[in-house]
């Protein structure tokens, strides 16, 4: 089966995860796709295929004869899509791109002025959304590429390889994808998540990440008699927002620059809540950012009274760089695999986190590779078919190492 056909089948499953759910997986729809993928792994010919009670899917491509003692290499992708945008009833469109803007629907277009890199895909067959949902290339493209590479090796036993393990996780988008991953069962020397962006990306540095919930406790008094009595929680929350550095948000940062990102806000006069994420590649700066938030809370409590502002700060994940650098040969392998099939490697820091970051801290070195997609987590998401096909070639080369 072609990688694009696989991908289109997978995006027919709506699999938004849900950060408010306490189950694993967080949504039942992920289990449906997981069951389908387990059956597909069996049909391809992988062994030790299982979907466990938490929705994790595993399978093994046994080593070729004579290579049983080689290192075992893993390939990991996630089945859920971001809860930030509608992810069911996806209506993908395939467009042979000839340049210019791409109209998704009457109201929304992929515009070159907004996404100037779009024109480097002139001549490609681009899969887009219809402008009403995300697409799901993050990370169903990764799953499609891994399975297509495995199917190719099964069809060509003359291509020699060591033991290959496949892992497909739920709930990566809400930071839980590695939480119940069975490393003992996976039994790999190193692995790659296939969960990156445009073709050629190799990433072994990621943000240190934390979540922050600010609760503002106000005092509500009838507005007719509120003078010197009311503490409007929503207005106080706005004051907190305005005290954070204006230029240190995702819209104003790139590369190694960290940020404070307001994800959610709600409230009234009595109580308001703000949900932030804090990100920075530098551990020192990461710690400073968390301290800055706490110092703001302490200062504002000094102004408005103790207990007016509360901060709950929780670390999410850490930069995997120090866990990967002792194993730089796995980065070299990825670079060489890309070059061997005509892909220009682009080693960049991840401005986010991956399952691989957590797994690296648990003892499995696990850098991240591109899927070929772009504009993840939104209605402007797209992926060129040719990029997916090239990634299949890259993975086959890596599997041969």
Explain this structure.
By secondary structure, the protein is α+β, with helices and mostly antiparallel strands. Helix content is 30%, strand content 22%. It contains ten helices and 17 strands. The chain has helices spanning 3-10, 28-44, 137-155, 183-186, 233-243, 283-304, 321-324, 329-340, 355-361, 385-400; strands at residues 47-51, 57-61, 73-78, 93-96, 102-103, 109-110, 125-128, 164-169, 190-196, 201-203, 208-217, 259-267, 271-280, 309-317, 346-347, 368-370, 382-384. Strands 1-2-8-3-9-16-10-15 form an eight-stranded mixed beta sheet, covered by helices on one side. It has a four-stranded antiparallel beta sheet with strand order 12-13-11-14, covered by helices on one side. A three-stranded antiparallel beta sheet has the order 4-7-17. A hairpin with a 5-residue loop joins strand 1 and strand 2 (57-61). Helix 3 crosses helix 10 (385-400). The protein is globular and about 85 Å long. 44% of the residues are buried.
List the helices and strands and how they pair.
Layout (H helix, E strand, L loop, with lengths): L2 H8 L17 H17 L2 E5 L5 E5 L11 E6 L14 E4 L5 E2 L5 E2 L14 E4 L8 H19 L8 E6 L13 H4 L3 E7 L4 E3 L4 E10 L15 H11 L15 E9 L3 E10 L2 H22 L4 E9 L3 H4 L4 H12 L5 E2 L7 H7 L6 E3 L11 E3 H16 L1
Parallel strand pairs: 3-8, 3-9, 9-16, 10-15
Antiparallel strand pairs: 1-2, 2-8, 4-7, 5-6, 7-17, 10-16, 11-13, 11-14, 12-13
Helix pairs in contact: 1-3, 3-10, 8-10
Low-confidence stretches: none
Mean pLDDT: 96
Biggest pleated-sheet summary: 8 strands, mixed
Binned strand content: 15-25%
Order of helices and strands: HHEEEEEEEHEHEEEHEEHEHHEHEEH
What would you report as the Rg, rounded to the nearest angstrom? 23 Å
The percent of residues in helical segments reads 25-40%
According to DSSP, the number of beta strands is 17
Shape: globular
| Sheet/helix structural class | alpha+beta
Give the N-terminus to C-terminus distance in angstroms: 24 Å
């Amino acid at each position: 089966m072609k990688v694009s056909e696989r991908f289109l089948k997978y995006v027919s499953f709506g699999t938004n995860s849900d950060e408010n759910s306490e189950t694993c997986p967080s949504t039942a729809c992920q289990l449906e796709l997981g069951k389908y993928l387990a059956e597909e792994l069996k049909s391809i010919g992988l062994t030790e295929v299982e979907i466990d009670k938490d929705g994790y899917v595993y399978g093994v491509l046994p080593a070729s004869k004579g290579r049983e003692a080689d290192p075992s290499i893993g390939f990991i992708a996630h089945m859920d899509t971001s809860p930030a945008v509608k992810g069911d009833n996806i209506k993908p469109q395939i467009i042979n791109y000839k340049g210019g803007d791409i109209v998704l629907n009457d109201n929304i277009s992929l515009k070159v002025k907004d996404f100037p890199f779009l024109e480097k895909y002139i001549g490609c067959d681009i899969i887009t959304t219809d402008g009403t949902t995300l697409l799901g290339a993050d990370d169903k493209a990764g799953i499609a590429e891994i399975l297509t590479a495995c199917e190719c090796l099964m069809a060509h036993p003359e291509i020699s390889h060591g033991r290959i393990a496949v892992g497909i996780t739920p709930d990566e988008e809400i930071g839980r994808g590695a939480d119940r991953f069975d490393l003992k069962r996976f039994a790999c020397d190193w692995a790659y998540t296939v969960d990156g962006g445009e073709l050629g990306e190799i990433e072994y540095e990621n943000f240190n990440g934390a979540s922050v919930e600010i609760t503002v406790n106000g005092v509500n008094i009838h507005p007719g008699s509120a003078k010197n009595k009311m503490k409007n929680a929503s207005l106080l929350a706005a004051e907190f927002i305005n005290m954070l550095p204006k230029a240190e948000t995702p819209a104003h940062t790139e590369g190694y620059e960290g940020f404070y990102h307001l994800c959610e806000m709600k409230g009234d006069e009595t109580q308001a809540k703000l949900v932030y994420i804090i990100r920075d590649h530098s551990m020192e700066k990461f710690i400073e950012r968390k301290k800055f938030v706490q110092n703001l809370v302490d200062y504002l409590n000094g102004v408005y009274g103790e207990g007016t502002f509360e901060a709950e700060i929780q670390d999410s994940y850490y930069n995997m760089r120090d866990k990967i650098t002792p194993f730089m040969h796995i980065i070299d392998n990825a670079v060489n695999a890309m070059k061997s099939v005509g892909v220009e490697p682009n080693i960049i820091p991840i401005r986010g986190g991956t399952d691989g970051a957590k797994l690296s801290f648990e003892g499995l070195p696990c850098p991240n590779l591109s899927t070929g997609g772009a504009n993840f987590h939104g209605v402007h998401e797209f992926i060129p078919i040719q990029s997916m096909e090239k990634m299949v070639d890259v993975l086959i080369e890596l599997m041969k190492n």
